[in-house]
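Provenance and format

Records in this collection were gathered into a single text stream. Each protein contributes a sequence line and a token line. The two records reproduced below are adjacent in the stream.
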Amino acid sequence: MLFILSASKLYAQSSWTADNGNGTYTNPLFYDEFSDPDLIRVGDDFYLTGTTMHSVPGLPVLHSKDLVNWKVIGYAMDRFQQGAEFNLKDGKEAYGQGIWAPCIRYHNGVFYIFSNINKYGLQIFTASNPAGPWKQHQLKGHIYDLSVLFENGKIYVVYGVGEIKLIELKPDLSGFIEGSDRVIIPRGNAMGEGNHLYKINGKYYITNADNGRLQCARAANIEGPYETTVVSAKETMGTTLGWFTQDMGQDSALPAADAKLSMTKQSDQLLGSVPMHQGGIVDLPNGEWWGFSMMDFRAVGRTTFLSPVTWKEGWPFFGLEGNLGRSPRTWFKPNVAQPDRPQVPYQRNDNFNAPQLASAWQWNHNPVDGKWQLKGGSLRLHTLPAKDFLWARNTLTQRGVGPESEATVELNAQKLKDGDIAGLGLMNIPYAWMGILREGNHFVFRIFDQYRQKTINKPLKSPRIYLRAFGNFDEDIARLSYSTDGKTFENVADSIRLPYQLKTFQGTRYALFAYNTKGKEGGYAEFDHFQLNEPLADRTKNLPLGKIITLTNLADSRQLWPNPHGMLCPGRSFTVNSDSAYQFRVLDREQGKVALQALNGTGFLTITSQGLSADVRLIKEETPGSLFVWQDMLKGQCMLLSLKTKRFVGLDPHTGELYGADWPGTLPNRKDGTVFSWQVVNE
């Protein structure tokens, strides 16, 4: 389902896409994990890649014409060629390690991706076609969070955290030029990590992230001296810290199935590392500049956001003139000659009839060739010995997709052997799964919740079953269910808590698995008809054009009241009232712009002067100050971005003040006075 309703209304869609179909987009670009993004423009085309950790194929390459709609065209790395840990062998694993923070570049007809494999050094991938094939070059040396600039026959590499260094690569990519390594930004200049290097109008710029902000350094000479400033900060778009698994870092031992794990709910008032960070900038052929960066997005993982860039005093600030450093959630699409139609980045559904897997699939560590097949219209996974779910080889995964998604798959366990188990899991720490265990000649349906240390067994009449995992990634909650007929599903166990943690360093993933619990090779499981349903992907009803609505402030639960004195005020009581004194009609002004007309006859909601408190007025005649960009906060919530001030309508609920349009954005918990719930009134 992907069709256009009108020139102004939103597209209906079955999978998340940022493009609203009316000339605007709504962040995030992807509602599934895409961390450490880097992108480039080559002519009228844009190319994007990002971190894939221990998953393969790795380093996806996505293509776009408009920076909003992306399509994966290939992967730069088929598998890891390094040690046993990438194969889950000899008691070794590479969770949260693998390949990180890539830099994509284009020079003289060749595409390059530079990235490090933790503990194995710098890898360089080259291709004449970004869709592949890619050739891998392995260099020695650990070059942390690097970025590359080709200039005058030289290949400059900046890298480091806190202290930023510059080193040169040999033109043939065989190694580093001896003696070229030097410090260009000493410690003490507020720099962090995640470097992105550019040369713009004769000056050198390095964007760099630290503690939930994006820093920028600037110099006339690539070796410095550099001055630095913050170009993006505090922008969470109303996203709070979520649940977090304690004492579980990158270098932690992989916890056993019976480990007692501790999770904590982090404060919803703290910014933490949620705000936009680690990203860079890119220009359009028409001279516009845009910023890209990632945000920590609760149990879904880290994902990518797009921001307009405003140059001021020679600095590329994320945000709009009048509101620098903050970014809109919904904004006008980049102005390109041939924008893409709304499209989704990956093929997620898979009936396993094609000769290759759908593009969204990634293996957990390297697959074992010969121990899986696409055969007879199904995915066949052969069981190999493993001590528990996280050690199972040939586990096939897809990223969990927010705000909500539901993975369903058919499992035929007839060919399992004694001690084999196969099913559908939620890959995380702690994890949960459900599946079929064969014990002798008997089949048992089993559910395991690692956090609760809870196992549930149910008898089965048939080894053919349908499994379903539902994830609410805004609330960090999942549910497991099963069906014997594919129509009626029964929930099993309690709601499952979804955290984020730094061991796998990934968001929650749906996982198809099969392994043997008795230390031997067994039979095989067959999976079919994998379907990923996204119930909130269709956002056509999220912009109530032509509707009569009421708006309620999340901070004080008071409705917005167009006071007959001509100012927007908090409601006179905390009781929800649906009479015309509190009603607005949402008027379509095309290309994502709206006006709000009060039904009590006071006029149009209009920003006057500087938009200070009481400058949100009710005016009889509509003016340019009456235009807003509706910020879709999902689930019946919104913000109003004034096109006059480039700031948001809001108030401080503790002061008794009237509404202004001078608010830069919202706090993570959305209770600062700028976020509203909206309800359609029956006409």
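Adjacent record:
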Amino acid sequence: MAPGEQTEPDARLRLDARALAELLASQRRRIGQYTARTYRHHPRVLGHRAAEEAKSTSDLYAEAGAVDPRDLFDALPLAALLVKAVCDGEGRVVDFHYVTRNEAAARYARTVIPPQAPPPWPEHPFSLFDRFPNMADTPVPRMLRDAHTTGRPQGPEPVEWHLPLADGQAVRIHDEVTVTRCGAHLLISWERGHRTQLARTAQQLARVCWAEWNLGDDSAHGSYGLRHVLGLPEDAPVPTLPQLAALTAPPSHDALYQLLYDVFLRGRRAECDLELRATGHVLHCVAEPVRLPGGPVWSVRAVLRDVTGERHIRERAARAERDAQLQRAQVHALADIAGTLRDAVLPHFEGELSPYGLEAAAVYRPDSGSGVGGDWFKVRVLPSERVLIALGDARGHGLQAVTLMAKLRYALAGLGFTGRKVEQLTAWLNNVACDDGAESTATAVIARYHPERCLLRWTCAGHPRPVLLRDGQPRTLDEADDACGPPLGVIPYQLYRATETTLLDGDIVLLYSDGLVERRDHDPDADTARLLDEVRRVAERGVGPGAAGLEQFAQDIVQALTGPQQTDDATLLAFRHLHGTPG
């Protein structure tokens, strides 16, 4: 970079500093013009200046007359004791004797110390630490010795001690103490230190402080917590307004300038956020003008509060809200896609089943969360005039589950045309699921109905067994020995065995997914018992004729077993046996 060339950020900092300096200088000129104008024209300045200046200090003392030192002592606004150092023959301090106290100390004692402790104050001098032994363990003895020896004031320092009471309790005394040499005596003064300490602690805990900048004399005053909030050493001077600007990061300079502009030139309250350059902390500053009577704004008074934690919480909440909105949008998009796909693949019964001795109805209810799941079913008349009946549940929810469901359903539809036995169809469908990946698992009941024999041959791959309703009494169908196989997609080349069930006229067979009966803390036996009880209860009202009556029967069962907060989709496939010979 060539000599004299400056980067854009450096130039901006100089411009900001110059703008702030010009704003403050213009306000100082207004204050100076106002004070000069009012001072020159003040009547006491015009009429009595010479006479007042002619009086000497001795004249003023003479007019005041003699002042009793005791009156001066009692006039002190702070509580104070007068103490005398007691020395041995070698000049070493061995004790401190109480001499007297002022009226403020008497009021303090009446306010803080109960009447029963200690005994009444005697009129003659006494040992201070004999009367208050616990005070000897505080900084007070050291402060007294140092003030007596060096002559320099000591403190203020926090002093805490306790005064025992007759009932076993104690008074806690917590003050800020100052010791000053007063002629041959020592003056102990104090004020209620716990108020100061509480204020300081509150400012540190809440990370809040106040400051006032006076442009009339360029003075700056701040509270105890100002340096803590600004990240400055405890002994650092209160920063001026230009120094405060230097402590902030460049993005805050415009905000600070606008705040001071509003306070000084518009005379109104203003607020802004300031980011500290060194720590990155963010301070919320609320400022108000302080005016001269009838004149310009003389100073600015401000409260600063560290809002870094609140800012981070808001930012995290905003990020979380944006992430949640994005996720909701993605979920809705996937649900729309999955729903469209499910609508496309959910079966409609192809052809009339009554010529083959059956009536069928299906009821599907999605869960209350994702809206789509992996439940699927298939009812189809095959070229052999037998009927393929199946119901399954692909693992998971959403698009992935619907995709697997569609694969299995369409694969079964194609495999069914081979004419092979139902156990072979199940084994092939298992291999299709295994080839699709480790996560592609599903349960299923796959059946073929033989009208000429009124026979239902079915396999179960990890799925709840069908329910048979006969003569108003429901029961789960028993499987043949070793007929129950694992879910599809778990073990490649798994062999399955079929169970044969002969149907009578009027029998109703129910195939269902576990979402119909399964609860969060579920017991499979209790789930099955609840299903059988509900089927029995609904059947007692009678099952209407035709496909419409069967569908209402299925709807009533699903309505009774599901609710608005179900966590899985539920499917019920019902078919009724009419007769055993094809038309």
